[in-house]
Specification:
single chain; alpha/beta; Glutaredoxin; seven-stranded mixed beta sheet; 7 strands; 32% helix
Amino acid sequence: MAPAYAALDIGEAAPRFTANAAVAGKTFRYSLADALAKGPVVVYFFPAADSADCSIEAHAFAEAIDQFTALGATVIGVSADDIGTLTKFSVRACNGKFPVASDESKSVIRSFDALMQTRPDFANRLSYVIASDGRIAYFYQNLNPDRHVERMLGAVRALQKP
């Protein structure tokens, strides 16, 4: 099976979005533009809150959040789950360490070419690093959650180098 590639390539402008999100069980309105004003952003898409692999991935991002913060980066997870589901997930799997955004309409998921082709009701497991200038610096797509955090940390570290 040939790998699928993201439509958004390195150097392209990332789509700006706002969405209902939750962190530590509290909901708020997330803005990518506001987050980028503070530094690079890791936007990671995941298929479904509370599934085994998505919980593993969220927990891994939570464990690494201090490393991202030390590099000046923030993390946001995005799925097609409703905000109620994600509010609970933000506590259970994300340990209250970073926000997760609800995209029930899948408009953000589509704009980042993160729709799962074989199951279009779900986001694919696709992660992006967006540089402070709003351009894609790196992306990684793999349904296995194991390497997303490591790859995203490496890409954020690479942004720090002159």
